[in-house]
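Hi V.,

Quick status before I head out on leave. The structure for the redesign project is tokenized and pasted below; the design run finished overnight.
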């Protein structure tokens, strides 16, 4: 049975300096974390990732039940941060409501904010929603007193890598994830263990 290897970057950013904020496009709004929204986050995550390379890297992103399990796992992490977990919605009435994007954040034991998944649903991409969600999560980290943020991204996702760089993230480590018959293993260097996966479905 053949294994597939995916090259990934760990990227870090300092949060001490002020950052300019990009406004949401007209008609869009942030929706803060609420326990009742766990399934909405999972559905948006699924719609954002199901046809992207990260669904190959992390097969759970390619099906709705996998996204539900993943969202529950993120929610149950000891360092889960509601102030760094957001949805983006558009539509002026309940009949017009569309869920467009999702991001989640947690804090590790060392006091670093870890971006988990940032996904924008097709049809709402190319308008800066990803930038806005990341900045919203970073503000949540600052609100929690964190001074740094970290994420991982698949190297082939060039648009996401460029976006993270534009927002102040710098590549710190390279690691390789092997997907072998449904079993996932990530090979990391000794200094690369503190970052959590951050998939990006933005383009």
């Amino acid at each position: 049975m053949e294994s597939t290897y995916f090259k990934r970057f760990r990227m870090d950013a300092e949060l001490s300096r002020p950052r300019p904020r990009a406004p949401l496009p007209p008609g869009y709004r942030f929706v803060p974390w609420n326990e009742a929204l766990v399934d909405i986050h999972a559905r948006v995550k699924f719609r954002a990732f199901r046809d992207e390379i990260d669904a190959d890297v992390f097969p759970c992103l390619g099906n709705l039940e996998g996204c539900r399990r993943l969202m529950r796992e993120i929610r149950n992490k000891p360092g889960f941060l509601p102030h760094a977990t957001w949805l983006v919605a558009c539509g002026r009435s309940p009949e017009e409501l569309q869920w467009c994007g999702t991001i989640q954040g947690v804090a590790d034991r060392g006091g670093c904010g870890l971006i988990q998944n940032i996904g924008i649903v097709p049809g709402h991409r190319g308008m800066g929603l990803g930038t806005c969600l990341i900045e919203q999560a970073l503000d949540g980290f600052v609100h929690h007193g964190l001074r740094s943020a970290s994420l991982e991204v698949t190297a082939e996702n060039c648009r996401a890598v460029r976006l993270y760089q534009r927002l102040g993230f710098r590549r710190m480590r390279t690691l390789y994830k092997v997907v072998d018959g449904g079993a996932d293993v990530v090979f990391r260097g000794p200094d690369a263990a503190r970052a959590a996966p951050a998939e990006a479905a933005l383009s």
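Above is the designed sequence. The CA atoms of residues 125 and 134 lie 14 Å apart.

G. will cover questions while I'm gone.

Best,
W.
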